[in-house]
Amino acid sequence: AVPPPPPGLIARIQETLVDNPIVVVSILIVTLSATILVLFMKRPGRRASVPTPLPRPPVDHTMIGLAAVGADPVPQVVRVPSPVPPVARVPEPAKEPKLTQPRARLKVLETSNAIPEKEKVITSYPFVVGREGCHFNFPGDLRISRRHVEITLRGQQLFVTDLGSQNGTFIGETRLQPQTPTPLNGSTQLRLGRKTVVELLVS
């Protein structure tokens, strides 16, 4: 006898399902769960809530360009010149009145020897009177020392000083102390030694 042909794939699946009802139940549960999941996912409003991105505002490229150009500008220090304070004019000091230098005139009143001149105006000081080598000389008169007397000016005051002469210098009968200035005012007669008399007139 010819053996029957082996059952097909579908027949074997059916036999397996009949022999194993647990497998059938498991397949049904899985299929049902998958169907429910698909339906649940397709319901409106149950999709994953993804926040809708807000529309970006239009970009102003002009402003971006200006911002790029002006970004972090380097500050420039503007030096403002300091105002020059007005120079205060210093008042000129009052000019002191120019004092006129006192003048003196020497005039020979008495002498025993001939002299080249008997009168002289004194314009510079000190002025020395003596026998020789002086501003006013009595040449050859041995009673007069070589440097006998000196006339000086201090400020506006004239002085006469005996320079340590041998025979002395006198005002009237008073002998002048050597190297001691004596003021002269107005008209003063001086005796040099014993025989010579001169007059000093201060003006």
Q: In short, what is this structure?
A:
By secondary structure, the protein is an alpha+beta fold.
Give a written overview of the molecule.
By secondary structure, this protein is α+β, with helices and mostly antiparallel strands. Among the domains are: 9-42; 104-202, Tumour Suppressor Smad4 (Sandwich). The protein contains 3 helices and 11 strands. The strands form 2 sheets. Strands 2-1-11-10-7-8 form a 6-stranded antiparallel beta sheet, with no helix packed on it. The mean pLDDT is 80.
Features:
11 strands; five-stranded mixed beta sheet; alpha+beta; single chain; 21% helix; Tumour Suppressor Smad4; six-stranded antiparallel beta sheet; rod-shaped; 203 residues
Helix run count: 3
CATH architecture of the domain at 104-202: Sandwich
Label the overall shape.
rod-shaped
Evaluate the radius of gyration: 72 Å
Q: Mean of the pLDDT scores?
A: 80
N-to-C SSE string, H for helix and E for strand? HHHEEEEEEEEEEE
Q: Total number of β-strand segments?
A: 11
Low-confidence stretches: none
Largest sheet: 6 strands, antiparallel
| End-to-end Cα distance | 194 Å
**Which CATH class of the domain at 104-202 is shown?**
Mainly Beta
Counting helices, strands and paired strands, the structural category is alpha+beta
Helix percent band: 10-25%
CATH-assigned fold name of the domain at 104-202 = Tumour Suppressor Smad4
Query: What fraction strand?
Result: 15-25%
Biggest sheet, spatial arrangement of strands: 2-1-11-10-7-8
Blueprint (SSEs and pairs):
Blueprint: H1 9-19, H2 21-42, H3 61-69, E1 104-110, E2 119-122, E3 127-130, E4 136-137, E5 149-154, E6 157-162, E7 169-171, E8 174-175, E9 182-184, E10 187-192, E11 196-202
Parallel strand pairs: 3-4
Antiparallel strand pairs: 1-2, 1-11, 3-5, 5-6, 6-9, 7-8, 7-10, 10-11
